[in-house]
TrEMBL record:
Protein name: Methyltransferase domain-containing protein
Pfam families, A to Z: Methyltransf_32
Region forming the signal peptide: none
Residue ranges of every copy of the Methyltransferase domain listed in the record: 134-272
InterPro entries to which the protein is assigned, alphabetical: Methyltranfer_dom (IPR025714), METTL25 (IPR052220), SAM-dependent_MTases_sf (IPR029063)
Organism: Cordyceps confragosa
Length: 466
């Protein structure tokens, strides 16, 4: 069962409210309707409720206003702690009611990420030395959970899709010698690294098989996995299965008789492929969300990858170039737009990127020169320095506004991720053979922001080897 946010008891109502929220004009605008880079072209600031923009303009430092917004969606429910001085305290007391309730709605509709307590495995040093602290914590918890599902379902085979360097598959094979593991990844170099790590531990190939294969939902891969399973029931696992890899896994689980259980944590939602004529299998995958015509723009999907509550809190005494860089980026788009400069990808989701060097942030003119050099803008088309300075003059007070617009889009991260998780949950719940589905916040969210694991099992089969 899906653990709904505390104010909900009905999945239908929750799904409806969640899908309605992401379809409101405001959320559509801030999650891609107007990309923050295009904010000056389309005057996105004026698209926000006037009482909100008026209120933000009263903050002495926009970074505090940004942090205040981020705190409002924190699950641990931090107080109004950006306001240690009296002036900020006074501003906080006058937060517009409509903003307060919109922020409360964002929080109330987000699935919980508070880690669900559960046992972990103490990994031996020989495994830990190859992993970073974050990965150690993830593998310690995931191996225990997967092992428990295996024991309760009498499963002896694990298929790890998107196995990467093999931290999960190798740990499972090393810790539980009665398991046979198949590690599949589309990258030959990842599989080579995983194989050599496994060999260094002396894990026999008969217990840990590696396979280089692109995972695309094809029946060719399903046949190979079924051959390897040899009629035994398997658990399909994936740790940070990027983008639509998670969706392919969910479909394999639903359709392949040899897959008896599933445990998958997604990530990199920006790699999700939306449903279209050329990709009928794309997002959303559930009938429940398809019937509501749910769509998420590329910017919204990118937003789903953010974890603003894990960002360092701003130091109002230290200067930061982040806000200025964002403003300059938006000013550049405006200058290009005004001067008819078109770049490949500039009108779509994929925006050209370049690096700035020391000195490029000294003024908008320096920044724009660097950008135009990197992007190969024709000299004849380039705005004159005088014109660039006019932009600097016109938008000198806009850093805070652009920063707030950016923060607003990031603020939707949890509802976007909830939409994706609900879609996956509902797709599985719609399958006849599936018995239980759960969305488990499996890791400490402060360490691993992508911590929602979809765990599912099938109804017992009559003729199987388990
Ligand atoms: C984020 S890494 C996670 C690796 C590993 N599970 C871990 O937690 O350390 C994702 C891995 O999935 C692989 N991958 C992503 N999409 C894939 C696909 N469609 N088919 C095969 N491999 C894929 C990548 O090559 C990469 O190794």
């Amino acid at each position: 069962m899906l653990q709904l946010p505390s104010t909900y008891s009905d999945l239908e109502k929750y799904t409806e409210d969640l899908c309605s929220l992401i379809d409101t004009p405001l959320v559509r605008q801030i999650t891609g309707g107007i990309h923050v880079n295009d904010a000056l072209i389309h005057n996105a600031w004026d698209g926000l409720p006037a009482e909100w923009t008026e209120w933000w303009s009263r903050w002495p430092d926009h970074r505090l206003a940004q942090q205040d917004l981020i705190d409002r969606i924190d699950e641990d429910g931090l107080g109004d702690d950006v306001g240690s001085d009296a002036a900020v305290g006074e501003i906080l007391r006058t937060r517009p009611k409509s903003l307060r309730s919109w922020l409360a709605q964002l929080k109330a509709l987000a699935l919980t990420r508070t880690q669900r307590p559960g046992p972990t495995v103490t990994l031996p040093e020989i495994l830990e030395t190859r992993m970073k602290t974050k990965k150690i914590a993830e593998v310690a918890r995931a191996t225990r959970l997967i092992r428990d599902v295996c024991e309760s379902r009498r499963i002896r085979r694990v298929v790890d899709m998107g196995s990467g360097q093999g931290y999960l598959s190798i740990s499972l094979a090393h810790l539980f010698p009665d398991l046979q593991v198949l590690a599949i990844d589309g990258s030959a170099s990842q599989i080579t690294g995983s194989q050599s790590f496994a060999d260094s531990l002396g894990i026999p190939h008969s217990r840990l098989t590696h396979m280089v294969h692109w995972i695309d939902g094809s029946s060719a891969l399903a046949d190979k996995v079924a051959d390897w399973a040899a009629g035994d029931g398997c658990i399909l696992v994936g740790l940070h299965a990027c983008g639509n890899l998670s969706e392919h896994m969910i479909r394999y689980f639903a359709t392949m008789p040899s897959l008896d259980a599933l445990a998958v944590v997604g990530c990199c939602y920006n790699h999700i492929v939306p449903r279209s004529e050329s990709c009928p299998e794309g997002f959303p995958i559930s009938a429940a969300l398809r019937s509501r015509n749910v769509t998420l723009s590329p910017t919204a999907l990118m937003t789903g990858c953010q974890a603003p509550n894990n960002w360092p809190r701003p130091d109002p005494h230290a200067s930061s170039v982040f806000g200025r860089r964002r403003l300059y980026r938006a000013m550049l788009e405006k200058a290009f737009h005004d001067h008819g400069i078109r770049l490949p990808g500039g009108d779509g989701s994929e925006r050209p990127a370049w690096g700035t060097r020391k000195g490029d942030m000294a003024s908008f003119t320096a920044f724009a020169h660097r950008a135009m050099d990197c992007l190969g803008v024709d000299t004849a088309q380039r705005p004159a320095d005088e014109q660039l300075r006019a932009y600097e003059d016109e938008y000198k007070d806009w850093e805070g506004r652009i920063a707030i617009l950016w923060t607003l889009s990031v603020l939707c991260c949890k509802v976007v991720e909830s939409v994706i998780a609900v879609d996956r949950y509902r797709y599985l719940a719609e399958q006849q053979d599936v018995q239980d589905v759960d969305v488990v916040p499996v890791f400490d969210v402060k360490v691993s922001p992508r911590n929602l694991m979809i765990v599912a099992t099938k109804k017992r089969r009559q003729n199987c080897n388990v």
